[in-house]
Amino acid sequence: MAQRIDVKDVNIYYGDFLAVEGVSMTIEPRSVTAFIGPSGCGKSTFIRTLNRMHEVIPGAYVDGSVELEGVDLYGPDVDPVAVRRNIGMVFQRPNPFPTMSIRDNVLAGVKLNNRRISKSDADDLVESSLRGANLWNEVKDRLEKPGSGLSGGQQQRLCIARTIAVKPQVVLMDEPCSALDPISTLAIEDLIQELKKDYTIVIVTHNMQQAARVSDRTAFFNIAGTGKPGKLIEMDDTATIFSSPSEQATEDYVSGRFG
Amino acid sequence: MTTTDSPQPTATPKGPVSRATARRRRSGDTERGFSRVFRWIATGAGSLILATLAAVALFLLLRAWPAITASDEEISSAVGRYPEGTSLLEFIGPLIFGTLLAAVLALALATPVAMGIGLFISHYAPRRLAQVLGYLVDLLAAIPSVVYGLWGFLVLAPVVKPIWFWLGDNLGWFPLFAGDVSATGKSLATVSVVLAVMILPIITAVSREVFLQTPKLHEEAALALGATRWEMIRTAVLPFGRSGVISAAMLGLGRALGETMAVLMIISPGFLIYSLQILAGAQHQTIAAYIALDFAEATGLAVNALIATGLALFLITMAVNMIARAIVARRKEFSGAN
Questions:
Q1: Widest CA span of chain B, in angstroms?
Q2: Which domains does chain A have, with CATH numbers?
Q3: Residue ranges of the ABC transporter domain (chain A) (predicted)?
Q4: What is the spatial distance between Cα A188 and Cα A159, in angstroms, rounded to a whole number?
Q5: Are A56 and B223 within 8 A, CB to CB?
Q6: Domains (ranges, CATH) in chain B?
Q7: What's the predicted TM-score (pTM) here?
Q8: Is the dihedral angle over the CA atoms A120, A124, A125, A130 positive or is it negative?
Q9: Contact B217 A108 (CB under 8 A)
Q10: B269 forms bridges with which residues in the sheet?
């Protein structure tokens, strides 16, 4: 249920514009890897290349290789749809489907591709996914109510439940707490600790304290200036990055001197 | 509510100006100058629509009244077209039926096509092609209905005739395709096809806009779950656009119900019968086409009878719009508006 990701020499383009340059890293299974860095440094762009969501934007493409357990996600006969089924994603703003009930939201991914599922299996899956997202007790009595009626933090946990319901190998989170209040943020951070037992977790965050709290490894991205490509400056154990990083730029960023 | 231009309490100058300011602040009124004028303009525009609607309804009611209260004999002798003793309801009923049948068929033909075009433009076509296509569809709306009538009569009718014969021969057991297929092709089926083409632009344009407004967030949510493009459209775009498409269809239905010229030019009219045989000639007539056909020669009570038919159309159109609103409102909770 958790697999490793190897990234080799990835360049990310929007049309002619080189957005992120020369990233290589290894993301270990059953761990939380955090991406930090100033705005515009390409960390969100980079996380989107890990499940080929980057390609949704017209003109965007990638060269280099991203391997999941040795299989190149950008190989010629790899279907991006299959990639995204294996590597789930949680977005910055909670985005439950507004026209669906809580229950249908959880089942949305499972019901894609006309996969048939019996009522009792569906019930079990809804319960286990919502329990997995620490949301079951709050919503078990109103599963047929619209997901958009929940609070922001609950909606984000609903999105996490929806993501883990399809049983992915990896869960990517793109600033999952940036639209949430501190209490909801804490709930999500606790949940991330739970999820890492079963999944490989990658999280982009603006909040350095959050990276320090939740992650095992931290990657620091930086950008030389406007119009220049973002780069991976260094990646190490979170404790090392926040205490004795090897690069001056990292030191400056984590100590709050810029960004 | 803005108080930026009110003086600070500590710096309040004495005199009449400060009293005026204080009064404004107390009443919560921040309008001055053109802001006030604009409020009148907006309110006036809003009231104008109500006044117009009331005026039309009043006109229809007052002028239809003599026909509604007249005896069957008076009516049938005033309107030469009908046999002795035909009641007003017997006139109007089949016309309402014909109008609804033509409009509903047109809607059934146009809506799926319009949604297809809308989705193609919003989610499939390359940007440049999408622009050109959007333009062309809008252009369809600019063609006058007389031209549609000519085209339907001279071009479409001969083209679709073989299809209608095939349907009549092979699917004649189906009530809609029963009866003798019109030898000229001037049947309600042909009218419906022309009406469908006429309402296509409005439905397409509105659906396209609605589909384009689907939040990127929801599209990406579907894609990130491993949805193909069609699945993404099904889970994110169509549910989001549902009420918009219904509104679009109702706009189209409104036009189809009221269309006069194209129907008048194509259909070979039939009166006083309720018939489902859309391929046969001389079976149907629509209200609008009927009024246009008879109005020039009508006098006295016959005019009142025509206006009564118009009143019926007015009521139908209103009912259609109210039903549409009810449909849209029914699942408001799930619309994403909250």
A1: 94
A2: 5-254 (3.40.50.300)
A3: 5-248
A4: 11
A5: yes
A6: 70-334 (1.10.3720.10)
A7: 0.81
A8: positive
A9: no
A10: none
